[in-house]
Design goal:
This protein is an alpha/beta fold. The protein is 33% helix and 21% strand. Helix 1 packs across helix 3, helix 6 packs antiparallel against helix 12 (409-424) and helix 9 packs across helix 12 (409-424).
Length: 461
């Protein structure tokens, strides 16, 4: 695979919602901030003209990005449009003409997964797959078998090193900050193991419901939508060993090793919930068994992490919209000061959204003569969300062939392996009230390792 940067960007599904909300603002950022100066070609079957796509781009930036006249004029000068059927060879002949002299295109498939194989094959037949990179959106399959089948189809036309499986969560600044904080500070490494860590909690809460995504969500559910991908990627960043060497694959090698060691779920290690009123959402079946909340208990079967429980929960219609990681440490082996208190100190907290922070919980002495203390939290860093959108960072990396922040096939397979047993025979959903922290059974799941640490709202949220 040529290591040179891509010399054209082609995005299929140019008139779709993802392009409107994420891709067009990301392309604007690449043009404005990184000086990208290559043909940018949108493709769709919508009966549109280039002028309509240009108008759509302006509307997109005004509502989901940052509109500035001069950078936008540069984007318009690069923008092309091909309207046509993905099954029609003429569509790809026109694409080839619009690409001009470009020979190393980046093809972004912002289209349903059922069309991935169709487009990949058409690109190969038209000579547009050679020296090209292929970006695909999740979901990468619906289960382990379909993910393997999808990969087999794509690899008929593109080598693994040219396939970039995009999960926008990996492009988020705070998710990368977990890795940086761990491996840029020697103080954490001696503590990051079963001898010092008591338990781990990862929470992703959303204060809204499924909104207008009823049909999609009812075929997906919380386990597939965010746990199998986003949350397991956070877990990998949090618990993987340090990358060895400086090769681009070093970090993904360690993530793969960690995820392959995670014990698969069983019925006793998961709680599924559904918020009251979900079944009345447009597109949702009136007797839907799909979960809008999930809590799981996992273990990593390695020497470093043997016996350390990991609790992940994600849900909609929660009290706040926020994501946090809590690494709880063991209490001291004896109570030196005879306080006989159940302290909640002794943890590291990574705030992932909506703001970004790293904090540590410790116990300190209260002023006065008595040796009594109080739990406090030291904030090591606190900042607003990153100004660079995840899609801009990820598309820039893909253009340069840097795959660190993208899913690799063995990583995707390991993630499906973890959740596979529950996909085929899930326990029933428990109803919970909107605005609550989910069904009471989640508190039973965490048991003596609890309570759950509930993220609080901030000014940013």
């Amino acid at each position: 695979m040529d290591a040179a940067p891509s010399d054209a960007i082609v995005f299929f599904g140019a008139t779709g919602d993802l392009a409107y909300k994420q891709i067009l603002p990301a392309l604007m950022g690449l043009v404005r901030d990184e000086g990208i100066n290559v043909p940018i070609i949108g493709i769709a079957k919508a009966g549109w003209t280039l002028e309509q796509l240009q108008a759509r781009a302006k509307d997109s930036l005004q509502h989901h990005g940052s509109f500035e006249e001069q950078p936008f004029a540069r984007l318009l000068a690069l923008l092309r449009y091909v309207d046509g059927d993905y099954n029609d060879a003429e569509t790809f002949a026109r694409l080839k003409r619009e690409m001009g002299r470009a020979t190393r295109p980046l093809h972004y498939l912002a289209i349903p997964p059922s069309l991935f194989g169709v487009v990949a094959a058409a690109l190969a037949r038209s000579g547009l797959a050679a020296n090209a990179r292929l970006v695909i959106e999740k979901p990468f399959g619906h289960d382990r078998a379909s993910a393997a089948a999808l990969n087999a189809v794509l690899m008929q036309y593109f080598p693994e090193g040219a396939i970039f499986r995009i999960d926008h969560y990996l492009g988020k600044e705070p998710v990368q900050n977990i890795l940086y904080t761990r491996f840029a500070n020697a103080v954490f490494e001696p503590l990051w193991n079963r001898d010092h860590v008591r338990s781990i909690q990862i929470t992703m809460a959303e204060s809204f419901g499924v909104q207008d995504r009823g049909s999609f969500y009812d075929a997906t559910g919380a386990l597939r939508d965010v746990v199998q991908n986003h949350m397991l990627q956070v877990l990998a960043n949090l618990m993987m060993d340090a990358p060895t060497g400086e090769e681009h694959e070093a970090a993904r090698d360690q993530k793969a090793a960690l995820l392959k060691a995670v014990r698969p779920l069983d019925a006793a290690s998961i709680v599924r919930g559904q918020y009251r009123g979900y079944r009345s959402v447009k597109g949702v079946r009136p007797d839907s068994p799909v979960e809008t909340f999930v809590a799981v208990k996992l273990f990593v079967e390695s020497w470093r992490w043997a016996g350390v429980p990991i609790y992940i929960r994600a849900g909609k219609e929660m009290p706040v919209t926020a994501a946090e990681v809590i690494v709880r440490f063991h209490r001291p082996p004896r109570d030196t000061f005879g306080e006989a208190v159940q302290s909640s100190s002794g943890y590291t907290r990574f705030r992932l959204s909506p703001d970004v922070s790293v904090s540590m919980g410790v116990r300190v002495k209260q002023p006065g003569e008595r040796m009594v203390g109080e739990d406090v939290e030291m904030t090591l860093t606190e900042q607003p969300a990153s100004l660079m959108p995840p899609y801009q960072r990820l598309l820039g990396d893909a253009m340069h062939g840097v795959g660190d922040l993208f899913g690799r096939q063995d990583i995707v397979d390991a993630q499906w392996r973890i959740v596979e047993p529950i996909l085929t025979n899930p326990p029933p959903c428990q109803e919970y009230a909107p605005g609550s922290w989910g069904p009471a059974e989640a508190d039973v799941l965490i048991g003596a390792d609890g309570p759950w640490r509930n993220p609080i709202a901030t000014a940013a949220g």
